[in-house]
């Protein structure tokens, strides 16, 4: 069995360069690759194109890269709670490609499945469809959307083994499994790294064949973007 473990995040991000395209798993602040993002900030890599559902918040997640002006283009479905993201987009400092969330997910999945493009009804007749091929099927119009072409995919899992098999926990699963399939080089950071055979094969969400590098993460904050509780009666 191939051992895909690297000793730390620095080794995991070997080969990262300016101008690359990255996929980053997560939804809001849930399931984001915190260690990989912190390392990208430390490296100071610039002119990046980042594919992610959104860009975290101002002082955490991809918001850290935005503050350092390391991201040239965001491909996402939601500006979210990030004021700096909104400011850079409206001022023209940041190129933004806003995509319907289902289309974003399917473009990730298509990349991993080797599908170069697909038709979807989402966005037809809106700005989303401008400049794209459209076609009618059974009386309904569809827009042709292309798969992505990322250099790296950075994902965060709950558990993983030395062969790269991954298990995600709860809603932290979100975009992570699809993006893990799509990177030319997929880097997985995990909360718990175990030996091969310790994970139940029936519980594995991402087979190790899709993962090139895996490492034991540390110091996870797991921030909550919006905390809502039921008031006491």
Automatic annotation (TrEMBL):
Lyase among the record's keywords? no
The record's annotation in InterPro entries points to: 3-oxoacid_CoA-transf_A (IPR012792), CoA_trans_fam_I (IPR004165), CoA_transf_BS (IPR004163), NagB/RpiA_transferase-like (IPR037171)
Keywords, ordered alphabetically: Transferase
Q: Which domain of life is it from?
A: Bacteria
Q: Does the keyword 4Fe-4S apply?
A: no
Picking any one GO molecular function of the record gives: CoA-transferase activity
PANTHER family on file = ACETATE COA-TRANSFERASE SUBUNIT ALPHA, KETOACID-COENZYME A TRANSFERASE
Name the protein family: Belongs to the 3-oxoacid CoA-transferase subunit A family.
**Protein name, entry field:** Succinyl-CoA--3-ketoacid-CoA transferase
């Amino acid at each position: 069995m191939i051992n895909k473990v690297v000793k730390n995040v620095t080794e995991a991000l070997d080969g990262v360069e300016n101008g690359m395209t990255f996929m980053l798993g997560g939804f809001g602040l849930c399931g984001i690759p915190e260690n990989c993002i912190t390392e990208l900030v430390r490296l100071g890599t610039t002119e990046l194109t980042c594919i992610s559902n959104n860009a975290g918040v101002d002082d955490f997640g991809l918001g850290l890269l935005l503050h350092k002006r390391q991201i040239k283009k965001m491909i996402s479905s939601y500006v979210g709670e990030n004021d700096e993201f909104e400011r850079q987009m409206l001022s023209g400092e940041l190129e933004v490609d806003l995509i319907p969330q289902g289309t974003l997910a399917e473009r990730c999945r298509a990349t991993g499945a080797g599908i170069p493009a697909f038709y979807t009804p989402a966005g037809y007749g809106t700005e989303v469809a401008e400049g794209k091929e459209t076609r009618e099927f059974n009386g309904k119009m569809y827009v042709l959307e292309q798969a992505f072409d990322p250099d790296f995919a950075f994902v965060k899992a709950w558990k993983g083994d030395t062969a790269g098999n991954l298990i995600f926990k709860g809603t932290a699963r979100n975009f992570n499994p699809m993006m893990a399939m799509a990177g030319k080089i997929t880097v997985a950071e995990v909360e718990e790294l175990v030996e091969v055979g310790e994970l139940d094969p029936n519980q594995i969400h991402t087979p190790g064949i899709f993962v090139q590098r895996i490492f034991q993460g540390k110091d996870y904050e797991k921030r909550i973007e919006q905390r809502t509780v039921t008031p006491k009666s």
